[in-house]
Design brief:
- By secondary structure, this protein is mainly alpha-helical.
- The chain has four domains: 42 residues, no CATH class; 234 residues, no CATH class; 79 residues, no CATH class; 56 residues, no CATH class.
- Helix content is 49%, strand content 10%.
- The protein is built from 17 helices and ten strands.
- The strands form four sheets. It has a three-stranded antiparallel beta sheet with strand order 3-2-7, covered by helices on one side. Strands 4-5-6 form a three-stranded antiparallel beta sheet, with no helix packed on it.
- The longest helix has 35 residues.
- The radius of gyration is 35 Å and the shape is extended.
């Protein structure tokens, strides 16, 4: 209770300070009444304030995510792009062991659950993925060395509304989790698990938009939904779209000037019924033959509505929404940007760079934790301490670019091999590793590499001279041995 009161008091103090120390642009023009806070102008009436906190309104967030495709795309796009290309494991583990771990991550739905955890973290401002290890108590700290054979059963994803963080029991040890909840209590009525306490070391946490310290305390140490910051731009875009759609029904307005209309309506009775019957005949005739039945004194007029400029308005609101969620138009709306020589490739490259930043920031440590657990579960040995991961690039090269890259790699390795810097088996390893990017050299097997590694060294040395020509013996594999045999036959 004391901590909750402190949090509310801290939030109120921050609001008062924000109101008391209002700042404005330094530029002012007294005669023209320009500048914020300078006289009676429109800019002086503008400010920022605290509206309804959208992150705390789960019902509204659920409605927006389930009914608005734009909100769904904003929440899902980055989460899916962060996980869809997978990772490359760089360690001393044998290739067959790393392949086993990669396959098990797919079969245990590790990637799908991580994607969902990122999604709900972005939507609600926080979510967790609990590491499920059979035979271990959830409220005890996770010790990697105690993970048994085949005991890792995957991840359980829960959003912030299914958990109660221990606000009165925080991590006191200095480190990345310092000041965070030490335990998370699962709400039984909203989960497949019974009520239980989960230690923070068994939890992979994913947040939305990070908040300052005081506001983070106000949100029970969770973060902010990504939808809250762009809510005003979303309303503007949807309102403009719906308004434009409504104009389609009024694309052509037709008016009829009826002689003595006011007198007919005032009289009512037979005259009003006759007027209504006349318009019923007009609708009937127009539907069938396109005829309009009028009195000689009546006048008919059609007014056409112009849609020019609406597409530019929609595009501008779409660009603002794209900038607010940091997702390019080509990814958010599936449309290429307009303009001369505009392909959207540069936008996608910048976007993929941002995705890579988020991957290293949010996924690197959680994935390493999963690999350590899976290594003990599948291989019964620790994951190498110097082992790292690299996220596979999202940018896909064209076939022509792959061929050119494969040629450059092959030429470089060939030069290194001929100069004696690399051995044959190392060249084969490099070619096989590059196959993930180039799509070539995929038929190189581990047996080929082992066979090349066991081949005898046929290099005869730099000082050996061919007795027939008195020239240095070529160091190319196979050629040196043939010339040596020929020299022995001549001597005999």
């Amino acid at each position: 209770m004391k901590q909750a009161k402190f949090q509310r008091a801290a939030v109120k103090d921050s609001i008062k300070q924000a109101k008391a120390f209002m700042t404005s642009d330094g530029y002012q023009n007294l005669f023209a009444r320009l500048g914020v806070g300078n006289g009676d102008n429109l800019s002086s009436g503008s400010s920022y304030g605290f509206g309804g906190f959208l992150t705390r309104n789960r019902v509204l967030l659920d409605a927006m995510y389930r009914t608005s495709w734009v909100v769904g795309k904003i929440v899902d796009a980055k989460a899916e792009d962060m996980t869809r290309a997978g990772i490359q494991i760089n360690s001393e583990l044998k290739p067959e062991n790393t392949d086993l771990i990669q396959k098990k991550m797919v079969s245990l739905n590790v990637w799908r659950n991580i994607t969902n955890a990122i999604k709900w973290g972005r939507l609600y401002g926080g979510a967790v993925a609990i590491i499920c290890i059979e035979g271990q108590k959830m409220d005890k700290p996770l010790k990697i060395e105690t993970v048994g054979k085949d005991s890792f059963k995957g991840l359980l994803v829960l959003d912030r509304w299914l958990l109660n963080p221990s606000l009165n029991n925080l991590v006191q040890d200095f480190g990345p989790d310092f000041g965070m909840p030490k335990y998370y209590d699962i709400i039984a009525s909203s989960s497949v698990l019974p009520t239980m306490k989960v230690h923070h070391t068994r939890v992979l946490r994913f947040d939305g938009i990070e908040l300052p310290s005081l506001w983070k305390q106000a949100e029970n140490l969770w973060s902010e939904s990504v939808v809250e910051r762009l809510y005003d731009r979303l309303l503007a875009f949807d309102s403009t779209t719906q308004g434009t759609a409504q104009l389609v029904y009024k694309a052509h307005l037709r008016t009829i000037l009826v002689d003595g209309l006011r007198d007919i309506l005032a009289a009512g009775g037979v005259m009003e019924a006759a007027l209504i019957k006349q318009f019923e005949y007009i609708r009937l005739m127009q539907n069938n033959e396109g005829l309009t039945l009028l009195d000689s004194k009546d006048q008919f007029a059609a007014h056409q509505y112009s849609f020019s400029g609406l597409s530019d308005v929609l595009l501008q609101f779409g660009q603002q929404l794209s900038g607010a969620c940091e997702i390019p138009l080509v990814r958010l709306f599936g449309q290429s940007p307009t303009g001369m020589n505009a392909t959207g490739e540069s936008d996608l490259r910048f976007y993929y760079d941002d995705i890579n930043k988020l991957q290293n920031y949010q996924l690197n440590e959680p994935l390493l934790t999963i690999l350590r657990v899976m290594s003990m579960s599948l291989l019964s040995k620790p994951f190498p301490e110097d082992g790292t991961i690299a996220f596979n690039p999202l940018w896909q090269m064209q076939d022509k670019e792959k061929v050119e890259l494969a040629k450059n790699i092959g030429d470089s390795l060939n030069n290194l091999f001929n100069s004696g810097i690399l051995k044959k088996h190392l060249v084969l390893k490099e070619l096989k590793q590059s196959s993930r990017i180039t799509g070539m050299f995929t038929n190189i097997t581990d047996e080929d590499i082992t066979e090349a590694e066991n081949e005898p060294d046929l290099d005869m040395g730099e000082d050996e001279v061919d007795p027939l020509t008195s020239l240095p013996v070529e160091k190319e594999e196979g050629v040196a041995s043939k010339k040596k045999v020929a020299a022995k036959e001549v001597e005999e």
